[in-house]
Amino acid sequence: MSRFVFSADAHITEPGDLFVENLPASMHAYALRAEVGEGFMQTMIGDQIVHRLKLGGEGRSDAMKMRRAGSRDLKMRVADMEADGVDGEICYPSLGLMLYHIADPDAELATAQIYNDWTRHYFDGYENRFVRCGILPVRRLEDTMAEMKRVASFGITSAMLPAVSPKGVPTYNLDAWDPVFQLASDLGMVFVFHTGTGGNPVIERGAGGAIINYTHQMTEAQDTIMRLVSGGILERFPKVQTAFIESGASWLAGLSERMDEVFEAHHYYVRPKLSLKPSEYVRRQVKVAFQYDRGCVMSRSVTGHEALMFASDYPHMEGTFPQTRKVIDDLFVGIDIPATEQRDILGGTAARLFKFPGAPAA
Q1: What is the DSSP letter of 202?
Q2: pLDDT digits over 133-190, tens only?
Q3: pTM: predicted TM-score of the whole model, two decimal places
Q4: 266: which DSSP letter?
C-alpha cells in the first residue's frame, strides 16, 4: 500500500561563501562560514568559533563521510528521497542555524535577508517536493516584523525563530512578542523553533557528553512551549501555529500534564489567568517533529495525534536516511492506532501545516 510521507525536518547546505560574498565589507567580521582548523570542522562568525565538530582520520569526520550530495544538489536530493520513500520536505538551513550567534543587529538582519533571498529561488522548479522556510532576525523585533512581511511577499509561509532567546532578547513569555505574534496571525505564518538555535547546546564536554548534549536539547523546546503557554501568548493569538523541530516528541505528554497539574493545584498563583488548561493550548497550537519516538504515539491521548509530525532529518547522522522506509515500518508496530492517524503523523499534518502543494486532504 502506498503511503504519503512528508518530512517536517530536513536540511540544505548553503554555498560556503554565501554570507562572506554577500555581506558588505563593513560586516565581514560577522560573516558566517565553515572551515577546517586544529582537527575540527568549525563554524565561524568572523574569528569567533560558534560550533565545531571533531575530525576523524585523514581530516574527515564521520559526519563528513556521511554527508549526502543531496544536501547541495537537488536532483540528487530527489533521487535520495525517492529511494527512501519521502514525498516532500520542509528544508531548514545549515550555516544559517547559527544566525542567532550574531550579536550585531544590523549584521543579523543582513544575514537573514541574504539567506531568505537565496532560499527564495533555490527551490525553483522543485515546488512539488520542497517547502521553503525563512529565518528571522530577533535582535530588534521591528526587524523581525519587517522581514516577516518581506518573506511573506515571496510566498513563504513559515519562518524560524530561535529555540532559545539569545542574551538581550525578550523571552517568549513576555508581551514584547505580542506585535510579532499578531503579525504572524495576520499573515498566517507558522513559527518554527529548531533545536540548537539561540543558545549553546554543549553543556557537557566530559564523560557521556555526546549523549547528554543531544538529549538535553529537548529542554529548549520544553522551555519555550512552557513560556508561550504560561505567558499567555498562545491564548492571545489562537490562530498562530508553532512547530518544534529536532527535539523529539515523547516528552510532550508529560510536559502537558505537568503544566495542567500546577495550573489547577496552584491556580491562586497563576498569572496571567488562562481560559484553557495548558494541554489545550498544546493540542491547538503546538506541533513537534520526531524521528524514532514511539512513546509519543503511545501517549497521543494527552497531546492529540495532530501534534505529532514524522521527520527524516536528512542528511544528519541522527536522521533516518537511508533507512526511512524501515523506520516507518517499525514505528507503529504493536500500537493500536487508526490508519487515518498514521497518515496524519507520517505526513498529512506537516504537509497541511506548511502548505505543501501535494498535501492530502484532512
Answers
A1: -
A2: 999 999 999 999 999 999 999 999 999 999 999 999 999 999 999 999 999 999 999 9
A3: 0.94
A4: T
Express each pLDDT in 190-226 by its tens digit: 999 999 999 888 888 899 998 998 889 899 999 999 9
Nine cell digits for residue 281: 493550548
Task: Answer for the pair 86, 5: CB distance below 8 angstroms, yes or no.
Answer: yes
Distance (Å, rounded) from C-alpha 147 to C-alpha 144? 5
C-alpha dihedral sign at 154, 170, 101, 108: positive
Cα–Cα distance between 231 and 212 in angstroms, integer?
29
> CATH 3.20.20.70: does it fit domain 6-28+68-353?
no
Give Cα 80 to chain centroid, integer Å: 21
Place of cell 502543494: 357
Query: Running DSSP on this structure, what letter comes out for residue 348?
Result: I
The residue extents of the domains of the chain are: 6-28+68-353
End-to-end CA distance of the chain: 19
Residue type at position 283: R
Query: Which grid coordinates are listed for 319?
Result: 536522521
Pairing of strands 130-131, 88-92: parallel
